[in-house]
Amino acid sequence: MAIPIINNWQRYFSNPDEGLGSSYERVILNRKLRKIAREYKITNVLEAPIFGFTGLSGINSVSLAKMGCNITLLDHNEDRLKLVQYIWKLIGQQVAFRMQNSYNFLDFEDDYFDMSWNFSALWFVADLAPFINELTRVTKKVIFICVPNRYGLGYLSQKYSTKMENIPDFYPKNIIPQNFVPLFQQRDWKLTESNYIDCPPWPDIGMPKLEFLKKMKLDKILKTKSESISILGYYQDKDPYFAYKMLKYSWLENYAPKFFKSIWAHHKFYLFVPQRQI
Fold first, then answer.
1. What is the CATH number of the domain that holds 97?
2. What is the pTM of this model?
3. In the chain, how many domains are there?
């Protein structure tokens, strides 16, 4: 959750080196998305908004596309969508793009998508209630929401070192569960699962993870080298061992107790299904 990405997100499109933190995050997120897609038999997916706190914008749904899902990406920044479109062409996957200035109305039919989701993106939605109303309207089976872990040590350190309320077009209140979970429930969607996700051996801090590991003398223990890291080669089937290399750091993800994750994990997810489906 590196807050400076609000102003420098473009740089990743000329240099896709995302570093260790975002690379690990993507692999863990991919694993969860694929699990949901298999469990709910997902074929048609909406990701909206596509901009969140990570490196390259707009590629979080690639793993679903590679499973055969139809993907629609929706965002409020036309320049960003053009750059994302170029990246998807490099990857060689088909995807539909939609540009909307507002999320108050989603121009799709009722129950058009099997699944809708977003990652660390709710705080870029100006009007939360209309957006969730629309998200539940256009979705048939499942909605997956990831937000930063507000009680994580990394989040708290960035929160108190940055005046979030002064960032334009940024609404941090949106990621508070008490502000978005009831909005789903009021629309007859039930929260069926919630847990921590993205829990690597490093804290959620706004600095390169390799630099942090060196300072903590952990780079040699974790056998981590200073090198450019990008998931694009993996998505292009040129780096088949990329996910395996990232999953070597998943021992906290897999085995840490929940109370530890509550202060260390970088994100928390919420999975909703319509009451009619239960």
1. 3.40.50.150
2. 0.91
3. 1
